[in-house]
Amino acid sequence: MNQDQVKAKLLDIQDAPLEFSVIFSGKQSRKVNGLYKPETREIILHNKNFNDDNQLLYTAIHEYAHHLHACRRGGSLSSRAHSCEFWAIFHGLLETAEQKKIYRDVFRDSAELSELTELIKKKYLLENGSLVKELGMQLLRAHELCTAAGARFEDYVDRILRIPRIAADMAIKMHQYDLDPQVGADNMRFLAGIRNDDQRLAAEQALIKGKSPDTVRSGIRGEEEDPQLRLAKEKQRLERTIASLTRRLEEVNRELEQGS
Fold this sequence. Notes:
The chain is mainly alpha-helical.
């Protein structure tokens, strides 16, 4: 597979609003398999690193996700390139590539790995999620008993159970929201933090259907907002931080002057 063929496959997965190029370095690298240069919009692939075209395409899709991420941000990238939004883009590209038979799902190639995956999902993720959800039910019962005894439930959680209050609160919400334990305890905690019922249900269904947590989080957070609006919000946050630090610096200087 040559550079033009790789680019054609990337465009077949998803079109790009800004032009880009794919370049084979003709080298082997021990550090990275590829990289993306937002200034020149170049996807560099160290093609000597790969044993087959499927491995090459995986890296190409990864770097292409950086390009599409940059396109959303007006052609530039922040210092934190591997953000939740990036992983959502990348996972979406992989999903489309697999559906179009452009990229092969390597996790299904191994029968042994597929069997282990089912074991992990059913025995550990499901059972762990079910246990935490059941814990939430028992904590609610403990809350009722504490109230009847004239005791503070928070004190019971702190000193008797010795678990963080936020963990107890999340477990209770998992039970109250009747979350599906098949998504696993960690995803249930994320879902329990979504206040809007419709958004929480939509996020839960997306996870059950196989969407990655980053894809779901990106959708919930609305990270696809206008880049200019995002920059304006960041500017406001920075200005508030600078003002706060400036006030604190003045206070410290005054204290130093009074001490001398």
